[in-house]
Amino acid sequence: MPIGMSLEQSHLQYDLTRRHRWDAHFGAWLPQLPKYLFVVAIMALLIWAASLRSPWFLLFSIAPLWVMRGFIAGILNIAFVPAQHMDIIITEHGLGFLVGGKRWWVFVDSIVQIEKFRDDTWSFGCYHGEMICVPVSLISPETIAHMRAKSEWGRTPEGVQAALHRGRLVLDFLATGGREAANPPSDKRDDSND
């Protein structure tokens, strides 16, 4: 589906088992394994130094833990949540997922990884670290094609500029407390096209 075509909004609700999340989590983290083995080796040295010299060496292990926080959070989620209910909305430009009663959104062009780590599940890895899994039976091939096209466009110079522009708009919105966006001044005009 070309980027210019509209995509019908999809609202999906389903449950992910531990196995679904395990496969997606390790599938996404596996390419990073050499880097994280190095971090684990540093932590082992710090724990060894703490046991021989001083427990203060354990403070230095906070940095490696911070580097691996996404991996650790995923493991804890798999360990303590037997089945995770998912509530997803997919639109032409965004993907919204429900977390604790609040919907969080990511732009489709910020998806950096679209993979099938299992035959029955699509996994979408976002730039900010979110991993969203959707059963294959619930998502159409047209939607996947659209998401792939937007994801690839997001890596082009035009897509990067669009993301930077969105970021500036959000910063302006936050800086003004939303006042200008909610009440734009009527005398403000764009003279750039004159």
Summarize the structure.
The protein is α+β, with helices and mostly antiparallel strands and about 190 residues long. About 45% of the residues lie in helices and about 25% in strands. It has one domain (about 10-155).
Mean pLDDT, rounded to whole units?
83
* Rg for CA atoms: 21 Å
| Strand order across the largest sheet | 1-2-3-4
Biggest beta sheet summary: 4 strands, antiparallel
Order of helices and strands: EHHHHEEEEEEHHH
How would you describe the overall organization of this protein?
The protein is built from seven helices and seven strands, in the order βααααββββββααα. 44% of the residues lie in helices and 24% in strands. Residues 181-194 have low confidence and may be disordered. It has helices at residues 18-29, 33-52, 62-67, 69-80, 141-153, 157-175, 179-182; strands spanning 10-17, 83-90, 94-99, 102-107, 111-118, 121-126, 131-135. The strands form two sheets. It has a four-stranded antiparallel β-sheet with strand order 1-2-3-4. The protein has a three-stranded antiparallel β-sheet with strand order 5-6-7. The protein has 194 residues and is an alpha+beta fold. Helix 1 runs antiparallel to helix 4. The protein has one domain (10-153). It starts with 9 loop residues before the first strand and ends in a 12-residue tail after the last helix. The chain is globular and about 65 Å long.
